[in-house]
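Task: sequence design from structure.
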């Protein structure tokens, strides 16, 4: 019953019209009085921000805020993989046979997420990591590795939430939501960065169009809390044993090594 009610609520509220209304409100000066209560509700550290809170004219401006240059340390280097986002590392595991991932007790199809069996086949036996961004997290996405861009593509059009409840009760949000996917080659290893939109139909904005990604540099941002999935081909990645899963991670934090 809980699963049915959750899905019914989402179907009623997360359509194009509701997403559009929310988008219009957060981008309006009418939303500015909500910034301080929003900061308090999500315990956002003002000292980390690049600009004083008074500078933000709308809630959307605040959503996509930039951090001070010294707010995060990039623990990068040869072979290292860093967290691309401030987030809750919700899940990590092996990509099973038939390219399936077990997340929150449910099997997710990597073929559906990436749009084809051919795309997914290269990651079978590899590793996946799921990073969930709440509305209060820093919303900008950074490159986890140094790598050359092999391909970029976009899939999906829905706007279901991609949080713990969404992953547990939703209808495959990682496979149906708007996805902006970048496939990289890093130290001769294949790495996919899947940016999964939520709430807004297209809630991912690219800020990087170069052929090479430099570890730690900004590549995109979310217009609302959402999810990033990292995919590594078989034998390409060893997760850091000190990570707590589920647990909080920060941009630039070392999460593992390319092997």
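Answer:
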């Amino acid at each position: 019953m809980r699963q049915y009610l959750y899905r019914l609520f989402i179907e009623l509220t997360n359509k194009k019209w509701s997403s559009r209304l929310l988008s219009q409100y957060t981008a309006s000066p009418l939303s500015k009085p909500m910034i301080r209560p929003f900061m308090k509700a999500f315990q956002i550290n003002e000292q980390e921000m690049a600009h004083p809170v008074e500078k933000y004219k709308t809630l959307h401006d605040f959503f996509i805020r930039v951090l001070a240059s010294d707010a995060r340390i990039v623990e990068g280097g040869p072979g290292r993989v860093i967290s691309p986002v401030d987030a809750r590392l919700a899940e990590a595991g092996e990509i099973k046979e038939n390219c399936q991932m077990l997340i929150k007790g449910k099997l997710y199809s990597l073929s559906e997420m990436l749009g084809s069996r051919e795309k997914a086949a290269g990651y079978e036996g590899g590793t996946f990591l799921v990073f969930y961004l709440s509305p209060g997290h820093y919303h900008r996405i950074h490159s986890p590795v140094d790598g050359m861009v092999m391909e970029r593509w976009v899939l999906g059009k829905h706007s279901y939430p991609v949080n713990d409840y969404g992953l547990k009760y939703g209808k495959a949000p990682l496979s149906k939501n708007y996805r902006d996917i970048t496939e990289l080659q890093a130290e001769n290893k294949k790495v996919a960065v899947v940016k999964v939109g939520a709430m807004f139909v297209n809630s991912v904005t690219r800020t990087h169009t170069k052929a090479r990604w430099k570890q730690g540099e900004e590549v995109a941002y979310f217009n609302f809390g959402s999810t990033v999935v990292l995919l590594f081909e078989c034998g390409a990645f060893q997760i850091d044993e000190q990570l707590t899963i589920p647990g909080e991670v920060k941009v630039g934090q070392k999460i593992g090594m390319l092997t």
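The chain has two domains: 2-63, 80-258.
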